[in-house]
Structures are given as structure tokens and as C-alpha cells.
Amino acid sequence: MERRRCLFLAFGAGHTCYPHIAQPVLRTTQQYSRSEFVEDPYLYGSAERFLQLSIESINDMASHVVVDENLGTVERAQDLPDIFESEGLIGEEMREQWTDMVGFRNALVHDYLDIDRDIVYEAIQHRLDEIEQLRSVFSQFL
Predict the structure, then answer these.
(1) What is the pLDDT of residue 2?
(2) Residue 7: CB partners within 8 Å, gap ≥ 6?
(3) Residue 77 pLDDT more than 80?
(4) pTM for this one?
(5) 113 class by beta-carbon count within 10 Å (0-12 exposed, 13-18 middle, 19+ buried)
(6) Are 45 and 39 in contact (CB under 8 A)?
(7) For the segment 41-60, what is each residue's pLDDT rounded down to a tens digit?
(8) Is the separation of the CB atoms in 52 and 109 below 8 Å?
(9) Do the Cβ atoms of 134 and 94 come closer than 8 Å?
(10) 3-state class of 13 per DSSP?
């Protein structure tokens, strides 16, 4: 339960867990222009890493909920959105958003040499709310 709580708090609720700074850092990154973002390796690198950590934290939290609540079997992160939708915990739109996040996280981790910085910029500018919406789904399990 403490690991689950720590992962939940990783989205900015102010806890001593390392990832708790991910969401505030990503929100701060939104203030930069596209050119500032893509041309600054320190800014881009840190934002990319915190985005990856945010998505991984969502998946870790979901995995704990699936096991603790006996919701099924998870073989890979791509299974999680379908399980949560089939249990009525999220709707189709959120499932699709989460599925996109899982794929994006995989690209960040495995295809890092081919990542288009403009796509990362767009994700930070327009899709952080999706991470926060998923976080609210998990709050009911704390």
C-alpha cells in the first residue's frame, strides 16, 4: 500500500518520492517556445525523462491496482488500459489516450534516437492533463 501511495503522490502532491517533481517540472516546461524547447538539450532531455517517468508511474500504479484488486492478469503495459475499461473504471476515450501514452513511453525508451522533439513538445503542451486524469482514477484505491 505504501508503494501505491508513493506512486500516486509522484504526480505532484508533495511527497518525498523522487518522481514527485515530474508534473511540476513538465508544467514549467510548457512556458518555453517550441524553438527554445527543441534547441536546448538540457531542457528537452529533462522534460523527456520526466514525461517517461510520469507514464511509467501511471503504469506501475495501475499494475498494483490490478493485482491488489484481483482485476486480471497483466502481461505487458498495453493490457492495462483494456483491463481498466472492462472494469468500468475508465471510458473508451481515456483508454485510447492511455494506450497512446504506453506507446509513446515505449518510443521514448526504445526509439530515443529517432524521437521527433516537436512531438515531445506537443505532448507536453497538450496532453499532460491526460496523465492527471488517470491519476484521479487511482485515488479511489488509496
Answers:
(1) 52
(2) 17, 19, 57, 60, 61, 64, 138
(3) yes
(4) 0.84
(5) exposed
(6) no
(7) 999 999 999 999 999 989 99
(8) yes
(9) yes
(10) coil
Give me the amino acid identity at 99.
Answer: T
State the cell numbers at 28: 514549467
Task: Tell me: pLDDT of 13 over 50.
Answer: no
Looking at residue 111, its pLDDT comes to 85
Q: What are phi and psi of 38, to 5 degrees?
A: -75, -20
Cα(71)–Cα(93) distance, integer angstroms: 20
Alpha carbon distance 109, 102 (integer Å):
11
Q: Burial, 81: exposed, middle or buried (Cβ in 10 Å; 0-12, 13-18, 19+)? A: buried
Q: Where are the alpha helices (DSSP H) in the chain?
A: 2-9, 22-29, 34-39, 41-68, 79-86, 92-110, 117-126, 128-139
**Cβ(50)–Cβ(22) below 8 Å:** yes
